[in-house]
Structures are given as structure tokens and as C-alpha cells.
Amino acid sequence: MISGFGRCILSTLTFTGLLLNGVANAHEVEGLRLWSGPESTRVVLDLSAPTPYRIFSLDNPYRVVIDLTDTRAAQATSLPGGRGFVVGVRTGVQPQGELRVVLDVNQRVNPQSFVLEPNDVYGHRLVIDLTPTDDAPVVKRAPRVDRTGGRAIVIAIDAGHGGDDPGATGSRGVHEKDVVLGIARSLTAEIEAQSGMKPVLVRDGDYYLPHRERMGRARRAEADLFVSIHADAFRDSRVRGATVYVLSEQGATDEAALRLAERENASDLIGGVSLADKDELLAMVLLDLSQSAAISASAAIGDRVIKRLGSVATIRKSQIQQAPFLVLKSPDIPSILIETAYISNPSEELALKTAGYQRSLARAIHDGIVDYFRDNPPADSYFALNPPPQRQSPVQHLISRGETLSGIAQHYNVSLPILKQVNSLSGDVIRIGQVLSIPAG
Ligand SMILES: [Zn+2]
Q1: C-alpha 285 to ligand 1 mean position (Å)
Q2: What residues contact 394, with CB distance under 8 A and at least 6 apart?
Q3: How far does residue 197's CA lie from ligand 1's centre (Å)?
Q4: pTM of the shown model
Q5: Coil/strand/helix, residue 366
Q6: What is the tens place of the pLDDT at every residue in 273-303?
Q7: What's the domain range around 405?
Q8: CA of 279 to the centre of ligand 1 (A)
């Protein structure tokens, strides 16, 4: 079954005649990498130059075939073993000078391909995403109900970047994609341990997800909040500290915020999402209608998170910043993006690598989120039905007939000596109508 053809990127018609004369192939496959996520497998071919190709899939056994025009495999190219849906990779040379790459897959998959221009890390690439052909049925989340009632507040936790998109990289080679995954996993554990909350970890591994897919997962999980975790980089290595962003519909708070948004958004070009969906325009219109309310909630949550982060980290900007991040564009889910630190700052790069600092950041983020939802619980939530105990004003006890000091101490579960001490009593004698202060047990 032919399920799709790649686009010709470069016209190489003139090569065809030459090939027959045994002239060296114009293109080379320099490497082949596999990344597997829970729902898709990504195959990346590193190419010496833009290369025309076509892709189709075959059954019996299931495989995906990529024919690359006028191409050979570089001698150093080693083929990876299986990963995700791919159980094996083979290559062979076709009579017309094409290099055929065969991906043996463990089920029928739908290959989607696109090419990428060189970036800081990689050269020309052909990327093939394999997803199962038969769409898995959407499983409706059963809300986690605590014994005491009320649904759990769902927090979607997104670790930025991943897979062939490393994000920012520090001078010691620490990748943003790795440290933010560590922080995201810690935050997931913190939320999991919180009564009345439930985490959904959007990316749990070293693979790339397009921005819209990240939001899509949050929406499918019916998240109450989407938190995207990043680490920033700047050419001045002295710059340090955390910043919390929310979406702005127009422009950015300042120039730096705009440049950051451009950089973060650019990873979707790496992810190669097709923005050609027909309903994109309509979706954008609908999105803008419901976005304003979500933005004000986002700002309030971000505010709480900054306050808590201030106790464990340097804060770069004490105010919420606004910038047009793609990953925050969800119509109805309040969303924040946290640049936890500057990976370009050597001491923050070192700290970010440690599990201890990742956990401190995660705890602070957790605490900020809880602060917000305690004050603004969704009506049907556990938080709404189980408000935290109020700070109690001292209990006063009016003594009535027949009561004894030891009986009162027992009743309030306080020790007799403390009860006497608090009320400046030397003996055990009490009077009817006397008022005792009862200390907290
Ligand atoms: Zn980032």
C-alpha cells in the first residue's frame, strides 16, 4: 500500500544520466537514528544534502520503504537495532542508483515524512514519523475521586523539547531536554502525592512532541492546568534566574520575551508539524474567544509559582511575563511556561543537573500550584469540598457544673500541666463560669 510520497526538495534531474556511467552517488546517508515515544516512533536519516525520496508501506510482513534518489550509505553508517514500532532496519541498492531503506515494523503504521534544514546540531535530515494506522479509541478519563469526595484537579506537566530537539545546551554539554524532564518527573511525583490532585506527564522519555500534540494531550486528559517546563539560554553567561510566562495574544512583554518565544516556537519547525490543517484558521478564531479568561487564571497561577520559586531559586523577573508561546495556546486550559534557570549560566547549569535541585524546583512549583487551587478551587473538586483547616483562633472553654480540670484536659486532648500553665493555674481548683484557654493539642 502506498501511503504517501515525499516532496522533491531539490531538482536533480541532471544526475540521472550520469549515474549510468558509474559516477559516485550525489547523496549520502550519514546516519540513521530512532526515537520512540508511547504513541509514535520517529526515524531520522542524516543526509549529506537535500535528497529526493519516496516512502511507502507494505504488508506481509509489515514494513516501510524509503527510496532515496541517487544515494549511498556512508561507510560509517551503522544501522540501529529496533526501537518503538521498528524492529529492524535494512538497506539495499536499487538498480537506478537509489538507496532503499527498509524499516521492519511490528504493526501496520502510517508513515509521515518531512525534511529539515541544518541547525546547530544536525545537518540535512529526513524525518519519518510512524504512527499506528488504526486510531486507538479515545479513552475517557475516569475522574479520580477521593474517599471524601470531589474530583482531582488535573495538572498536565510538559517537559519542553526532547528527542532530536535538545533545546538549549550549556557550556558543559547539559541539554535542556534532559534537565526539564527530570524536573517534570519530580513535579509529577509531588502532584501524585498531593490529595485532590492528579498529574499527567505529557512527555515521559527522550522523544519530540509537536506543540499542538502537547496541548492536545492536556486537553484529552481534561487538565485544569498546563505547565510547560524549560530552561533558558543567553549569550551573556552571567544572566541567571527563573522566569514564568503566560501567553500574550498580542506581542510580548519585552523584546527578550519575544525572542525567547521565537526560539521556543522554532522547535516546532524541528518537530516539523504541518500547519496546513484546513481548520487551522477557524480554530484560531474560536481559540481567541475563550483565551482571555484562561490567560487571567494563568497569570494568577504563575504569580503564586514565582512566589514559591523565590524561596529556592534566583528570580529573573518578579512579574509574570507575557509572550506568544505556541505551546501555551490552549483555548480553555490555564497554561504557564516556566524557564526554571539559565543553562548558559555555569553554576545554574551544574545545579540543574542535580536531582536535588530538580526536586527543589519541582516542590516550589507544586506549592505555587496548590496555593492557587486552594484559593480558587473548581466547584466540583476535592479542594472545593475539603477546604484546608482554617488557622484556629484559640479555643475558649466555659466551665460548667461538674467539670474537672483533668476531665477538660482529656476532652481537648491536651496535657494537664500545659493546660494549667497556659491558664496560670497553680492548683487543680476551677470555678463554674471560669473561662479557660485551650492550647492546640
Ligand atoms: Zn525550551
Answers
A1: 27
A2: 437, 438, 439
A3: 26
A4: 0.60
A5: helix
A6: 333 343 444 444 444 545 667 788 899 999 9
A7: 395-438
A8: 27
